[in-house]
Write a structure and sequence with these properties.
By secondary structure, this protein is an alpha/beta fold. The chain is built from 11 helices and 14 strands. The longest helix has 16 residues. It binds adenosine-5'-diphosphate. Adenosine-5'-diphosphate (ADP) binds next to strand 2 and helix 1.
Length: 331
């Protein structure tokens, strides 16, 4: 029998209430080592609470969790030495330089003076902060601050990193460079537990995504699996001539057509049999299409459908605009 991969993190029936307010209503998690797990959800869903519990900052009301093999609530000290947390609980001190912040962190981890300096230099270099390392953090841009935050987390050489909204408020270029750095960590075997408001971020980085809504996981899977859960996919055909479009619409109905773009959309799950059937019908009608593209729903569609509250994460912020992604295959 194949052995299942070692788990970096597991949780069974995790619950948290504050007084009579139930915030987490029985969460199950199972995250293999060296993977990226994304917890996605609207504001107030319980993402931060989940991270706070799993990183030993607050105690759950019920449920059993293991982090890096250690039992939460019993072996918290061992958990804390295996994990790193960046984001909302950032330890970055604005009045110190980047280098001083890193050295302070090295002291907290009981590294020798020399080792601390060596580590700081290495991390400043790795995160493209060598020059900035001599300036106070107060002068840093958002992207530099995030990179320093992540660098500080790495001083302790954690095996599991909780990244709480690592790119919120960053411009697209800084966001991409952060994604690259996260991918490098994963390539080194680190496990990432990511919370994000950005569907594109989950799509780009995560091996598995859980959608949290009202303290419950309403769906879990790969980005592709989640996209398949909901309708909205279609096959789009483009034609050279208007008369071809009109004839195709007759032959292939029910479809929606766009006479200006000379395209028509056929509702479809984008599977190979569905594709083959469309191609066969085109052949049967002796029609030649200029292009064929397969469109699957994006995570935006998934999120809006599953959480059902129209509360798109990050709604109201210009940063939240996620470009519509289409998986295309052009013939
Ligand atoms: P998210 O990170 O997904 O936005 P949170 O985990 O911060 O969600 O919060 C989930 C819910 O728990 C929210 O309704 C929030 O108001 C509530 N909550 C969080 N912390 C506390 C607390 N200390 N006391 C009472 N309610 C809290």
């Amino acid at each position: 029998m194949p052995t299942s991969p070692a788990l970096a993190l597991s949780a069974v029936a995790l619950r948290k209430s504050y007084g009579d307010k139930l915030v987490l209503d029985g969460i199950d998690l199972s995250i293999p080592q060296g993977t990226v797990f994304a917890l996605l959800g609207p504001n107030g869903a319980g993402k931060t609470t989940t991270v706070q519990i799993l990183s030993t900052l607050i105690a759950p009301s019920d449920g059993e969790s293991r982090v890096a093999g250690h039992l939460l609530g019993r072996e918290d000290e061992a958990i804390r030495s295996a994990i790193g947390v960046t984001g909302q609980f950032s330890a970055v001190d604005n009045l110190l330089t980047g280098e001083e912040n890193l050295i302070l962190m090295a002291n907290l981890h009981h590294l020798s003076r020399r080792e601390g300096r060596r580590r700081a230099t290495e991390l400043l270099q790795r995160f493209d902060l060598t020059e900035a390392g001599r300036k106070t953090v107060a002068t840093y841009s958002g992207g530099m601050r995030r990179r320093l935050d992540l660098a500080m987390t790495l001083v302790g050489d954690p095996r599991i990193i909780f990244l709480d909204e690592p790119t919120t408020g960053l411009d697209p270029r800084s966001r991409r460079s952060m994604w690259e750095m996260i991918r490098e960590l994963v390539a080194d075997g680190v496990t990432i537990f990511l919370t994000t408001q950005y569907l594109e971020e989950a799509d780009q980085l995560a091996d598995r995504i859980a959608v949290l809504d009202g303290g419950r996981i309403v769906a879990e899977g790969t980005a592709e699996e989640l996209k398949r859960l909901i309708p909205g996919g279609h096959i789009r055909l483009r034609f050279h001539e208007a008369h071809q479009l009109a004839f195709a619409a007759q032959q292939l109905g029910p479809v929606t057509t766009d006479p200006e773009a000379l395209t028509l959309d056929i509702p479809s799950d984008g599977s190979i049999p569905a594709l083959r059937s469309v191609l066969d019908r085109l052949d049967g009608a002796a029609l030649d299409a200029a292009a064929l593209t397969v469109h699957t729903p994006d995570l935006d569609d998934v999120f809006l459908t599953l959480t059902g509250n129209g509360n798109k994460p990050g709604a109201g912020s210009a940063q939240a605009t996620v470009p519509t992604q289409t998986k295309e295959s052009v013939r």
